[in-house]
Design goal:
By secondary structure, the protein is mainly α. It is built from 36 helices and 14 strands. The radius of gyration is 29 Å and the shape is globular. The protein starts with a helix and ends with a helix.
Length: 828
């Protein structure tokens, strides 16, 4: 086969894997915003607003372009999600070309690869093997857990992966043409893309050391040529610098838009000085590279992970720092993720080291029993049927190790390639671990950060097919087996939960008076911003994030009107709350009184020694508004604003702050209206819809308030409306998609009270069966690891007790007598 024919076949196969990846991601893409940062990124792209540091201006510009293809605002999120899908497919395209380039050089040889046309022919067997290498490596990465996760949502990681793959492929193109007169154009293009990539994510820069190795291995001829052509070297350097700056100039968008004062303008980087702080992520603070145990705020979390630590003058020793780095930061927060993608994943539940959540598995029972220290044949159905349970039997890992071995055995060129790919693997993996210096108990899993490292390993997986020689096509079974496992837990089609749940927070508030809601975390803030900024929902309301309310720039923004929402009632001048001033205020009083025409509200400050700036701002607003403007606290706020807990009235996904309340209350009429008529439930009644742990958590919040409403209606004797709520629950969030929690016992009580014992029994039986499954399995865990699962056991034992109490209350214990005996044995 002529080289030109091979090149055409290779390009055709690259487009084939691109189409496969694009179709897969297009079919499984989320049709609206996803949780965490995605709603913020979509809003920033659509309106060119300023998101969290260090910003992503080039992503914003491209997202804005794609948003123009939306037929109406509800389609904008889908368009931006499709951008990620297409960029991810583009990453797969360049991964294929990279693998076949490396395989071609090793199998046919450098001389043959660059020989003049007509002087060399490629054997059919080698062509098949090379193309198989590319297909196997590219499709394995296509169907890998972490990369697929980012490919179907509006995040920067898909774009970052695309640019990383493009830059790495371009340096290989340069390597092929380094001796030719016009080869410098590839270096200049790389410089331009490097500048652009900073406007997406800094992770792209981590491939530069591996690219430098490519240049280093061409140093002999290259350096001698450049010494002879010093003017050319100077011209190349200046050109690269200029093109880098042109690419980096996307950050001018941040300055321009910040000075336009859009509604969302985080950190307000209006000047070069504030832009510098924005780029350096100053608001997040600095993390040292050493020591590894450093954060006093996480002292208990360190202790929980490490157990008893050896200290010197109260400071953990170097040995303890090394132990934490190896066991937690490297093993748990990197290698665990790596093995998820290439060996198998236990489930989609975030883990903190306990046996039941988020571990890697093989799918081979005796190995998993040994790894987890339990009897995996007795897994509770919640875990055994978890869609995030993906078993690959270690086949991708094995193929990758064979690829490393094969590459190493290919002489000098193979060893050079191995060093290049290894450096890419390390810099985008363990080097990030060292740099991040993560503390225990992160709010979410962080596997998406390391997709560059998994990309590098996918190269070796592809080369592993070459090790099999004539049996190389059998390696295609690896990505086929992977997709059979990973499709169901990456298919987000038909899921509208983030958009709808964010909208539910806004719809909780009353229609009059331009209400304000206090929120705190990403998932009770960004979905609200998305609804207001993109889809135009409840622009008469204001979402006030308490974490940001600690900063002067955010208080400035709250003092400005936004859409139909007037400025918040803050009378302080900027000088009163500027950075470094009034960060907290010591107090020596047990109470605070706010007087208004609505009445006198006495706020207990017992046991509080000081008020933070955000708490002072809340009290300032309540005092100035004199209850003419409704204020709400999101139900997810936990202990934030704890001094207001006795003055809250539950109306939906938020509590209204009321001067008349002296203890937490329920507004039954508003809560009923919201749940039955104003709330939307994100398509959770679609058969087989994928519900991950984050969506489940937010759905459980809805179920909790439904349970509160059912109990409140039953106390009023309003059984008919209580049954209506039960019916709504079963219709919108059926047990098949969202397994019952103890909140469902409110439904059981309602069914028993309305002479529908079979429906009540179904709920009680479900909870008792699953509780028994969980506790029975946890008791098989080896004693040395069982303590980490003590909380889970406690929760299920509590659920079992509550279910048995309901059964006893309605004289159903005969039906569940076997569980009474089990409960007694579990308490021994």
């Amino acid at each position: 086969m002529q080289p030109t024919t091979f090149s055409k076949i290779n390009t055709l196969m690259a487009w084939l894997v691109f189409v496969i990846a694009a179709v897969v991601y297009g079919l499984t893409v989320e049709p609206t915003a996803s949780l965490w940062d995605c709603p913020e990124f979509i809003a920033c792209g659509y309106k060119l607003e300023i998101g969290h540091p260090p910003g992503a201006p080039f992503f914003m510009l491209v997202a804005n372009l794609f948003s123009q293809f939306a037929s109406d605002p509800s389609q904008i999120a889908l368009m931006v999600n499709l951008l990620s899908a297409l960029l991810s497919a583009g990453c797969i395209f360049f991964l294929f070309l990279t693998i076949t380039h490396l395989a071609q050089k090793l199998m046919i040889g450098k001389v043959a690869a660059n020989a003049p046309l007509g002087t060399i022919r490629y054997s059919l067997n080698k062509v098949i093997t090379i193309e198989t290498c590319g297909v196997v490596g590219a499709l394995t990465y296509t169907f890998s857990d972490s990369f697929w996760f980012s490919a179907v949502e509006a995040e920067v990681y898909a774009f970052s992966s695309f640019l990383t793959a493009l830059m790495f492929w371009l340096i290989l193109k340069w390597e092929n043409e380094a001796d030719q007169p016009r080869s410098d154009r590839w270096i200049i293009l790389i410089a331009y893309i490097t500048g652009l990539s900073i406007g997406v994510h800094l992770l792209c820069l981590l491939c530069l050391p591996a690219m430098a190795f490519v240049v280093w291995f061409r140093k002999d001829k290259l350096l001698s040529r450049l010494v002879r052509e010093r003017r050319r070297l100077l011209k190349l350097s200046v050109s690269c610098l200029l093109m880098f700056l042109v690419g980096f100039s996307s950050y001018a968008v941040i300055l321009v838009r910040a000075n336009a004062c859009p509604p969302m303008c985080e950190n307000e980087p209006k000047t070069l000085s504030t832009l510098g702080k924005y780029l350096s992520r100053e608001q997040y603070g600095q993390k040292p590279l050493y020591p590894r145990i450093y954060s006093m705020a996480h002292a208990q979390a360190y202790e929980d992970w490490m157990g008893e630590m050896e200290t010197h003058e109260g400071i953990p020793t170097k040995a303890e720092n090394l132990r934490f780095f190896l066991t937690y930061q490297a093993n748990f927060m990197y290698w665990r993720y790596f093995l998820w993608n290439f060996v198998g994943r236990q489930n989609n539940i975030q883990g903190q080291g306990e046996v039941e959540h988020g571990n890697w598995i093989t799918g081979i029972r005796w190995i998993d029993d040994w790894l987890l220290g339990c009897d995996t044949s007795q897994l509770p159905s919640d875990l055994a049927e978890n869609k995030g349970r993906n078993v690959f039997y270690g086949l991708p890992l094995l193929l990758g190790l064979l690829g490393i071995f094969w590459q190493w055995r290919q002489g000098r060129e193979g060893c050079r390639q191995l060093w290049i790919v290894m450096l890419l693997f390390v810099m985008t993996g363990l080097a990030i671990v060292v740099y991040l210096n993560q503390t225990p108990m992160p709010p979410r899993e962080r596997d998406y950060v390391y997709v560059g490292s998994f990309y590098a390993f996918a190269i070796w997986i592809g080369l592993g097919a070459a090790y099999l020689r004539k049996l190389a096509p059998l390696a295609l079974l690896v990505p086929l087996q992977m997709v059979s496992q990973t499709w169901d837990d990456h298919d987000r089609s038909g899921r509208y939960t983030c958009r709808d749940f964010g909208q539910n927070y806004l719809m909780t508030m009353q229609d009059e008076g331009n209400p304000v809601i206090f929120t705190n975390g990403d998932n009770d803030t960004f979905p609200l911003w998305y609804n207001q900024e993109v889809e135009g929902v409840r622009r008469d309301t204001r979402d006030c994030n308490l974490e940001y309310l600690q900063t002067d720039w955010y208080i400035d923004q709250m003092k400005r009107p936004a859409y139909d929402s007037p400025a918040l009632p803050i009378s302080w001048s900027h000088e009163d709350y500027r950075e470094g001033k009034m960060e907290y205020l010591p107090i020596n009083t047990d109470s605070l009184t706010i007087t208004s025409p609505e009445g006198t509200m006495v706020i207990s400050l017992k046991d509080k020694k000081y008020l933070l700036k955000n708490e002072l701002m809340v009290l300032e607003m309540l005092s100035n508004a004199v209850w003419s403007r409704p204020f709400y606290v999101a139900i997810s706020m936990g202990n934030n604003l704890s001094f207001l807990h006795d003055h809250l009235v539950l109306e939906g996904l938020a509590y209204r702050i009321s001067p008349k309340a002296t203890e937490q209350q329920v507004d039954v009429e508003r809560l009923y209206d919201n749940i039955m008529h104003r709330f939307r439930y994100g398509g959770l009644n679609t058969p087989g819809i994928y519900v991950d742990e984050d969506v489940k958590h937010m759905a459980n919040t809805h179920q909790f308030i439904m349970g509160v409403l059912i109990d409140s209606l039953l106390q009023q004797g309003d059984t008919q409306r209580a049954l209506n709520v039960c019916k709504k629950w079963q219709q919108e969030m059926p047990n098949e998609n969202l397994p019952y929690t103890d909140a469902a016992l409110s439904m059981a009580r309602c069914y028993y009270l309305t002479s529908q014992p079979k429906l009540g029994d179904a709920i009680v039986s479900n909870l008792l069966r699953r509780s028994a499954e969980w506790i029975t399995w946890i008791d098989t865990i080896t004693p040395s690891r069982r303590n980490a699962s003590a909380y889970t056991r406690y929760i299920w034992l509590k659920t079992m007790r509550q279910a048995l109490l309901v059964a006893d209350q309605f004289n159903r214990t005969d039906k569940f007598h076997q569980y009474l005996n089990q409960y007694a044995s579990f308490n021994q």
